[in-house]
Amino acid sequence: MIDRASLRLSAGLLLVGQLLYIVVTQFHAGGDANNHPAIFAAYAGNEIWAAVHLGQFASMAILLAGLFALFFALDVEAEAAKWAGRFGVASAVAALALYGVLQAVDGIALKQAVNAWATAPDTEQAARFASAEAIRWLEWGVRSYHDFALGLALLLLATAIVCITWVPRPIAYLMGLSGLTYLVQGWVAGSEGFSPAQSAVIVLGWVLSLVWMTWLVVVAWWMQDSEHDT
Fold first, then answer.
1. In the chain, what are the domain boundaries?
2. Would you say 143 and 92 are in contact if contact means Cβ atoms under 8 Å apart?
3. Rounded to an integer, what is the distance from CA 103 to the centroid of its chain?
4. Residue 193, SS3?
5. CA 53 – CA 36 distance, rounded (Å)
């Protein structure tokens, strides 16, 4: 059974969420994220910090809503694939919750900490910097587990999609590969923070995601009418 309307909605949410996330992230304050004195100074002087992080959260919520809707739009029948999809949806929900925590830590707590450090008198600078660094390390941890949850969600849903004959299998394979890039991001973020290696894997994940999401949109809009459509 194919619900074309739901599939189109899901594919659209996925692609729009990913594109919005990439665009919004371009406005994030840049620099060597692991050079804390320099990057904290840049963060303290950034006036659109809260708006950018709110935009990132909204974009991620749209993307994950698309993943959630995808499972129901596909109407998987095979029992093993159905359970893979269910666990994938559960992991997507966990990823959204973790991303909310991440943006609370990064978008609010870290910003307040670096602002306090930047304006503190000399006698308080060291203590304020240590507080900001501790929040940064907390951000590493939350980002790491968000990436693990999102990567697992993508891998599990890709496994379910492989069992559906009318979806081109390369879509599922590319989806699974993008899931693997998130797992790598999670490991790198947890072990060495926001390094150049993590940035490279992030870009790779974006490229893979845009390919399979665009392909899914094409399939959803050009597939033949089905007598089972709702």
1. 4-222
2. no
3. 12
4. coil
5. 19
Lowest mean pLDDT among 55-59, 80-84, 98-102: 80-84
Per-residue pLDDT of 156-173, as tens digits, reads 999 988 877 678 899 999
pTM to 2 decimal places: 0.91
Residues 50, 58: Cα–Cα separation, whole Å: 12
Do residues 215 and 198 make contact, with C-beta atoms less than 8 angstroms apart? no
| pLDDT at res. 1 | 54
DSSP annotation of 230 reads -
Q: How far apart are CA 8 and CA 165, in angstroms?
A: 18
Q: Which two tokens stand for residue 145?
A: 């587990």
Q: How many angstroms separate the CA atoms of 40 and 49, rounded?
A: 12
The two structure tokens encoding residue 39: 């990057």
Q: Give the containing element (helix H, strand E) for 216.
A: helix 196-222
**How far is it, in rounded angstroms, from Cα 179 to Cα 204?**
11
Q: 24-45, pLDDT tens digit by residue?
A: 999 999 999 999 999 999 999 9
Structure tokens belonging to residue 25: 């992230």
How far is residue 35's CA from residue 75's CA, in Å, rounded to a whole number?
Answer: 48
What is the sign, positive or negative, of the torsion defined by CA atoms of 33, 109, 48, 139? positive
- Please choose, from the candidates 223, 170, 169, the residue with its C-alpha nearest in 3D space to the C-alpha of residue 3: 223
